Amino acid sequence: MTREIENFKFEHRHGKDRVRVGRVWRNKDGRYFFVEWNVSISLLSDCLPAYLLDDNSDIVATDTMKNTVYVKAKECSEQISMEDFAILLAKHFTSFYRQVTGAIIKIVEKPWERVYIDGQEHEHGFKLGSEKHTTEVFVKKSGALQVTSGIEGLALLKTTMSGFEGFIRDKYTVLPETRERILATEVTASWRYSYESLSSIPQKPYYFTDRYLDVKKVLVETFYGPPKQGVYSPSVQNTLHHMAKSVLNRFLDISSVQLKMPNIHFLPVNLKNKDDETIVKFNDDVYLPTDEPHGSIEASLSRFWSKM
Ligand SMILES: O=c1[nH]c(=O)c2[nH]c(=O)[nH]c2[nH]1
């Protein structure tokens, strides 16, 4: 909420961060489904008297917000995507409380994956995977909405078909040019859907979950290229742009995509002993893995008609 008070601009919101919830569903055949979500709620509401006076009569308590997560999780008798759960929560807060004019709900899913035993899916066994699915939903009382989904911690590496040449060389430059290096990154991606109102959201139950898996697949496939020959990457920047473009070309319901791709360096190892004898000579084989410092490369790509 933005207000002008005594010639100052005053903005406020309040909510509850990191509400953790696990939800189990069981289908008729006795097969279990499980999600673990970390939910953050932020409400835009008319509760100025609480800031200016000792009047809390327009405050939705953040403890109440936390409880609502569990109530709504309980009420979801069928499995639901985390985007739909975020929309459901936001709809609740903006319609149930006169004071609430907007709700921002963020969810990060813990990557529990069904296990396979002897090549067979386990009915109720899960193990922790790596990258995380994220979402952020903003719903206004009017029904206007924004839905963003994303991925965090998608670690990708290829051992060849990457180089970096032709960059600025000056007295500070040491880095040799190369057409052969390891390319490694940990992708953080987010993409905005083009839906702008509650009524335009697709009603298909796993729509957003399926889309998340589709986008991840396109990002990964574009990074690596075809299984046998791969695809040459002249820079992280170029690969990032290809990945973003592939997502927008493939999915017309996505209006913009943002990618952060740190360049995680693997340094060539060359060693000489005290007699100046070479004991390890680098031949694109032995590397020193590092996590810092790392290059930081990020960009966003949007359709022209996108409002992002
Ligand atoms: O793909 C790269 N992009 C850069 O901007 C850069 N800078 C650098 O030192 N190595 C690399 N690699």
Helix and strand sequence: EEEEHHHEEEEEEHHEEEEEE
Helicity range: 10-25%
Whole-angstrom Rg: 24 Å
How many distinct domains? 2
The CATH C-level name of the largest domain is Alpha Beta
Name the ligand types. uric acid
Describe the structure.
The chain has 308 residues and is of the alpha+beta class. It has two domains: 1-143, Urate Oxidase; 148-308, Urate Oxidase (Roll). Helix content is 22%, strand content 38%. The strands form five sheets. It has an eight-stranded antiparallel beta sheet, with helices on one face. Strands 1-2 form a two-stranded antiparallel sheet. Strands 6-7 form a two-stranded antiparallel sheet. Strand 3 and strand 4 (32-45) form a beta hairpin. The structure holds uric acid. Uric acid is lined by residues 164, 175, 235-237, 263, 295.
Overview in brief:
This protein is α+β, with helices and mostly antiparallel strands and 308 residues long. It has five helices and 16 strands.
